[in-house]
Automatic annotation (TrEMBL):
This is CHRD domain-containing protein. Keywords: Developmental protein. It comes from the Eukaryota. GO terms for molecular function: BMP binding. InterPro entries: Chordin-like_regulators, CHRD. GO terms for cellular component: extracellular space. GO terms for biological process: dorsal/ventral pattern formation; negative regulation of BMP signaling pathway. Residues 1-125, 127-257, 264-379 form the CHRD domain.
Length: 379
């Protein structure tokens, strides 16, 4: 089965006067702080990440860009990933109390330097996040008024009772004269199909200069969820009074957390299978002694990239490699075939991309309910 390990995630929003924007996710696990970022220009990657306290004292610095080399995963996803290992106890306390800042640094001492900084804070909606949006001033907005503005959307969805929940952390869309009960409009739409999936007006009781948070939720159709999982939607938040001048928007993409799903492939345990299950299994395939490893991750466009390495695989046995979902019902485990990966098998390796995951399959991936089944066809 594919799984991931994480703790309580956090988010940080960063801006500067050049309208560079970034959004970060932080996960603390076994004394280590794992971090992930989307930046507004993936090709212009930051060189370092600094941690500091409220007084500006630097607590630590992590190199992010060494000799121009980054991992394949970071290049494909456009994410910036890393870990601060063995965080001292005193600094862990600052994290718990939300008294730590992070800064992304670009450039060197002999070049123009850019810095984005923000506070690390907890948000409840991160526990169910499936998608992220990095929101920037929309084309046609007032560049002077929107200077330094930005936002991040934390998006979750349910396929059982189709619905979408959007939480947006933002600043920069309020005019100077707006100080109480300011109406704003949140919209989720397909620009390609000119279709509005969600539109809701929300009043901000007391707009804050630093950060504001709004949450909206709506029931949707299964077709709307498919647009969401396939990266076809854009989320925006705008002033109701000046929607063209004061507006943030961003494409909905794979969630910001850096994560690779992996699984160990081994032969099935026949002792855990009853006679009825054995008869059913034999009608389709024979047990295999093949073993191996598999890796999967979601790319920026919402496609599932996979790599599978298999040992002791005999091509004479007509092997099958299938992505399945598994669940237990009444004490029995049943498998449902989702995708046949056999055509990508070559010399003990299978590499490829599954372009379209359904909303339910995406939920199963993040819940650790997907598996790979290796079997042989009977003559």
């Amino acid at each position: 089965m594919f799984h991931r390990e994480d703790g309580s995630p956090s988010v940080s929003l960063h801006q500067n006067n050049n309208n560079y924007v970034a959004t970060g996710r932080f996960t603390f696990h076994r004394k280590n702080l794992y971090y992930s970022f989307y930046v507004s220009d993936p090709l212009y990657r930051p060189r370092a990440l600094q941690f500091s306290d409220f007084e500006g004292n630097i607590l630590g610095e992590q190199a992010l860009f060494i000799d121009g080399v980054t991992s394949v995963y970071q290049n494909v996803t456009g994410k910036v990933c890393g870990v601060w290992r063995r965080v001292p106890r005193e600094y862990r306390r600052l994290l718990r109390e939300e008294r730590m800042f992070v800064s992304l640094l670009w450039g060197t001492a002999d070049q123009e330097q850019h810095i984005l900084s923000g506070q690390v804070a907890r948000y409840r909606s991160l526990s169910t996040e499936l998608f992220t949006s990095l929101m920037q001033p929309a084309p046609g907005t007032d560049s002077l008024t929107m200077n330094g503005a930005g936002g991040t959307a934390i998006i979750s969805a349910s396929s059982s009772a189709p619905s979408i929940h959007v939480s947006i952390v933002f600043n920069g869309i309020f005019s100077p004269e707006e100080f109480a009960d300011v109406p704003i409009v949140v919209r989720l739409e397909s620009l390609e199909k000119q279709q509005i999936v969600l539109q809701e007006e929300v009043k901000i009781e007391k707009p804050a200069h630093e950060l504001n948070t709004v949450e909206v939720q709506t029931a949707v159709s299964s077709a709307d969820l498919r647009l969401l999982t396939r990266g076809k939607l854009v989320v925006s938040i705008a002033s109701k009074k000046k929607p063209t001048e004061l507006r943030l928007e961003g494409k909905v993409i794979t969630r910001a957390t850096c994560e690779i799903f992996q699984g160990v492939l081994s032969s099935a345990d026949a002792d855990n299978t009853n006679d009825e299950d054995e008869d059913s299994e034999k009608s389709v395939s024979a047990q295999t002694v093949t073993s191996g490893m598999a890796w999967m991750y979601m790319n920026r466009d919402g496609a599932l990239v996979y790599s599978v390495q298999l040992d002791e695989l005999s091509l004479e046995d007509s092997p099958m490699l299938v992505l399945v979902s598994g669940h237990r019902s009444g004490g029995r485990r049943s498998l449902l075939e989702l995708e046949d990966l056999t055509p990508s098998l070559s010399s003990g390796w299978a590499n490829g991309t599954i372009d379209r995951l359904s909303p339910r399959e995406l939920e199963q991936l993040y819940a650790g309910e997907l598996a790979l089944n290796v079997a042989t066809r009977l003559e």
